[in-house]
Design goal:
Ribosomal Protein S5, domain 2; alpha+beta
Length: 128
Amino acid sequence: MEVINAIGRRKAAVARVYVSEGTGKIIINKRELDNYFPSTILQYVVKQPLNTLGVVEKYDININLKGGGYKGQSEAARLGIARALVKINAEDKPALRAEGFMTRDPRVVERKKPGQPKARKRFQFSKR
């Protein structure tokens, strides 16, 4: 099997995912998954699409992650893995869609507006 690639995004994070046949190794930015994400919750988030389909030990996954924080990065990786798995086998799409792994989360940081300290916060109003 050749290498299948897909892109996942979340907030400012971008994950380029490369999936090939293998033994279940997940490498992120040339580091092991448990080394890159010490938190077991984030490791679980990355593996969710694989656990849903029961193919954790079937594929080797190489991920290049850029931008964002660790939560956004883990969710970007999850989306990328889900998209790559659908490219490999299109019949898996309904199962992943039902769990919500095929949907790109559109929420991003709102821009700061001029004349305000933050996006929505206003400076204190003074009547006199």
